[in-house]
């Protein structure tokens, strides 16, 4: 075997092997040898195995200064027939074979073969993934230059977007194919502080530019993106959003009423019987003006179920429960009805749930208005919705996400994909956990349904998570484009490695050492597995968590008793009914006689401009 390798290497054309005979004893180059260009690094193929090849290099190739060293992550070109093979270096080691060292090759670079540059019918060069012509031992190998890199990494078609630069040649742009990325879903993975939020901002900003017909719905878990997209995005939160309670299906409504705790069986049974009756009663009252003699509607006749998204009045539901309770003689049974009424009344009167229960006893079919508002139909210059979740009560966030995901899918289903929608989920592992005992089942099912079937109906999914190992494997497996940022956890790396079937999966070995804003992109959205550096965002587009506190505040300001009182007043007011017995306005007026609210607002503005706070916020990106 060694003899065969020796004969193959020595059998090269005259002058090739001799190009390294400039080496003097001791392994030093002749002083007259010049290595000024990329192609100056030359080697030969010394082994081929499947999709991998090994290239022998002179020991000086790894010592070159500048950007022309043959090291991990670089690409080599191997001329074979009418084409040029492209391989990426995934491992470099000292050559131990005496035969190979005898020829002047002291370093071995192991390549993953990525594809070929071929001539098309028009004589133009095109890069094609996959290998048709394998290299032969003794073939010459050289570093790929910038022009060849542009050809290799250039996305074809009009749907490409430029999101950064190649890590190993910052002069070469890195592109993503929007159509392939969206239609087959994508995920952004990385630990905290590596630039995931910036990656989201870069990608979504480019999509808004190139695909204005695609609506974007972003679940903003930490209220980071409110200012990132300017006037192109509508920002919704509990203060300005209306999501009527009757749009929640039965499981979601029960989750709200019981505060994320398992529903009590007897009370859940009562709700399942009375909700369809309340829906039928609302229909009867609505039609009473036109048909006053109409008999009471029966749910079996109307066809309403507990999940049918039609309006009903919450007071009608309470009255129906109370009516049934009055007919009971068993005290223990009546207690279940009484507890259920108390739960409903408690949630309805909680101001934190105002986005659900405002006008709960007025009625009105506002479903069309809600759909238009949520999914920007028509866009009105704002094709994107940023849904800020940090202001919602913790007990109801899972249910809200479930409703939004389910409505997004159902609208795409029943509109036959007439309005393409990208549904982006920040902190996706919270809503679609791999552990079925954690999280809320309907939320997981809503996201999973988009992942599995959404592309058929123009509903696309974007996942963002710092713990991919905790994300439902079924959901992440549907994402055909992965943007991997730095991850130190071995379980997370293992999951990503199992999801990558490309020959360049060895690139994942770089994941623990990636810098901030560095990404390794795999899958359908990129021409090749690519290590790239994302474009730097302007200051106003960098995501910043609004809840991040300033550690360098003036202690004299925050120790002021009036300041503390104002904070506590706002704190308590978040869970108080405003205007009870007409006392609230007077109390607010009295409390603010020293201008505390104005001072509090001024302090917030000062904090926002503080340079220390800004530096802290940037670390969260």
Description:
The protein has 621 residues and is an alpha/beta fold. It is 35% helix and 19% strand. The chain has an 11-stranded mixed β-sheet. Strands 1-2-5-4-3-7 form a 6-stranded antiparallel beta barrel. A hairpin with a 2-residue loop joins β8 and β9. α13 packs parallel to α15 and α19 packs across α21. The protein is elongated, with a radius of gyration of 32 Å.
| Helical residue percent band | 25-40%
Q: Number of DSSP strands?
A: 18
Distance between the termini: 55 Å
Structural class: alpha/beta
Shape, please?
Answer: elongated
For the biggest sheet, the summary is: 11 strands, mixed
Mean pLDDT: 80
Instruction: Give the percentage of residues in beta strands.
Output: 15-25%
What's the quick description here?
This protein is α/β, with parallel strands linked by helices and 621 residues long. 35% of the residues lie in helices and 19% in strands. The strands form 2 sheets. It has an 11-stranded mixed sheet. Strands 1-2-5-4-3-7 form a 6-stranded antiparallel barrel.
Present the secondary structure layout:
Elements: H1 2-10, E1 42-49, E2 52-57, E3 75-80, E4 83-94, H2 98-102, E5 107-119, E6 125-129, E7 140-143, H3 146-153, E8 160-166, E9 169-177, H4 178-183, E10 186-189, H5 196-210, E11 215-220, E12 233-236, H6 250-257, H7 265-287, H8 299-302, H9 314-326, H10 331-349, H11 354-357, H12 367-375, E13 384-388, H13 397-414, E14 421-426, H14 428-431, H15 441-453, E15 459-465, H16 473-476, E16 481-484, H17 490-499, E17 518-523, E18 530-534, H18 555-558, H19 561-573, H20 584-591, H21 596-609, H22 611-619
Parallel strand pairs: 10-15, 10-16, 11-13, 11-14, 12-13, 14-15
Antiparallel strand pairs: 1-2, 1-7, 2-5, 3-4, 3-7, 4-5, 5-6, 8-9, 8-18, 16-17, 17-18
Helix pairs in contact: 6-13, 7-9, 9-10, 13-15, 19-21
């Amino acid at each position: 075997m060694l003899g065969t390798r020796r004969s193959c290497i020595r059998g090269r054309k005259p002058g090739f092997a001799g190009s390294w005979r400039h080496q003097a004893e001791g392994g030093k180059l002749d002083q007259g040898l010049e290595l000024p260009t990329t192609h100056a690094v030359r080697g030969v193929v010394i082994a081929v195995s499947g999709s991998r090849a090994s290239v022998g290099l002179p020991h000086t190739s790894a010592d070159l200064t500048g950007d022309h060293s043959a090291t991990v992550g670089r690409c080599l070109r191997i001329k074979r027939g009418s084409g040029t093979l492209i391989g990426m270096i995934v491992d470099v080691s000292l050559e131990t074979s005496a035969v190979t060292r005898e020829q002047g090759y002291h370093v071995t670079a192991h390549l993953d073969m990525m594809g070929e540059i071929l001539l098309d019918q028009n004589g133009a060069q095109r890069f094609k993934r996959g290998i048709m012509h394998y290299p032969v031992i003794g073939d010459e190998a050289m570093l790929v230059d910038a022009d060849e890199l542009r050809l290799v990494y250039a996305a074809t078609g009009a749907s490409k977007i430029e999101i950064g630069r190649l890590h190993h040649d910052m002069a070469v742009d890195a592109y993503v194919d929007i159509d392939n990325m969206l239609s087959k879903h994508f995920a952004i993975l990385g630990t905290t502080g590596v630039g995931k939020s910036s990656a989201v901002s870069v990608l979504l900003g480019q999509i808004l530019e190139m695909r204005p017909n695609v609506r974007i719905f972003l679940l903003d878990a930490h209220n980071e993106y409110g200012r990132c997209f300017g006037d192109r995005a509508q920002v919704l939160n509990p203060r300005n959003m209306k999501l009527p309670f009757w749009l929640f299906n039965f499981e979601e409504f029960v989750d709200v009423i019981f505060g994320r705790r398992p529903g009590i069986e007897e009370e859940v049974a009562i709700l399942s019987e009375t909700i369809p009756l309340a829906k039928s009663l609302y229909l009867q009252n609505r039609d009473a003006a036109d048909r006053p003699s109409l008999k009471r509607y029966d749910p079996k006749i109307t066809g309403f179920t507990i999940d049918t998204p039609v309006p009903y009045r919450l007071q009608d539901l309470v009255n129906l429960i109370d009516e049934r309770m009055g007919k009971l003689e068993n005290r223990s049974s009546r207690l279940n009805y009484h507890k259920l009424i108390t739960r409903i009344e408690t949630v309805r009167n909680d101001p934190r749930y105002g986005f659900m229960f405002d006008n709960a006893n007025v009625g009105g079919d506002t479903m069309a208005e809600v759909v238009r508002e949520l999914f920007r139909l028509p866009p009105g210059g704002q094709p994107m919705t940023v849904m800020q979740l940090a202001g919602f009560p913790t007990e109801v966030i899972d249910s809200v996400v479930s409703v939004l995901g389910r409505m997004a899918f159902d609208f795409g289903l029943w509109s036959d994909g007439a309005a393409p929608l990208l549904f982006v989920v920040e902190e996706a592992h919270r809503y679609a956990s791999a552990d079925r005992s954690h999280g809320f089942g309907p939320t997981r099912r809503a996201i999973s349904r988009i992942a599995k079937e959404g592309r058929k109906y123009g509903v696309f999914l974007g996942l963002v998570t710092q713990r991919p190992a905790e994300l439902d494997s079924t959901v992440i497996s549907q994402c055909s484009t992965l943007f991997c940022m730095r991850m130190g956890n071995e379980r997370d790396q293992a999951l990503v490695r199992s999801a990558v079937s490309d020959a360049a999966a060895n690139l994942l070995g770089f994941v623990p050492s990636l810098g901030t804003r560095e990404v390794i992109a795999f899958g359908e959205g990129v021409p090749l597995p690519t290590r790239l550096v994302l474009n730097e965002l302007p200051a106003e587009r960098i995501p910043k968590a609004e809840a991040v506190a300033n550690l360098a505040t003036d202690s004299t300001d925050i120790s002021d008793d009036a300041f503390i009182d104002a904070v506590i007043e706002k704190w308590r007011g978040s869970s108080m009914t405003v205007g009870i017995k007409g006392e609230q306005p007077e109390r607010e007026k009295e409390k603010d006689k020293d201008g505390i609210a104005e001072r509090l607002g001024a302090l917030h503005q000062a904090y926002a401009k503080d340079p220390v706070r800004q530096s802290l916020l940037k670390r969260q990106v």
